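Can't paste images in this forum, so I'm doing it all in text. The chain is below; anyone willing to post the predicted structure tokens underneath?
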Amino acid sequence: MMPDVWDYIYFRDAPFPATSRLPKSVLDRLKAEFEWWYPVDLRASGKDLVPNHLTYYLYNHAAIWPSDRSAYVVNIVCVFHLQKVALYFQRATDYGSQTWQLGSASMNMC
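Text version of the structure:
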């Protein structure tokens, strides 16, 4: 696919590409699918990915949508730290999985 087709899918105000061999109904369906998934509400990842993967994740969103902050990710959660806190409370209180549920609920993960 040509760059103007991707622009039509990714950007709300992009015109329908005149060079597209795909029908408008197909591109409109792709655009609707993309807009259903974006913006990302929550990105959960491990702490080892913060210096590379998650940093580039933010850079890419800022590069693709420099003026549309509504397309940016809303929350990034480092799951390792939540697991570490849950493990500490599990050992200290004997509540088991309720600790993970409480921590998840407090971080809007449920």
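Residues 50-64 form the longest helix (15 residues). The radius of gyration is 20 Å.
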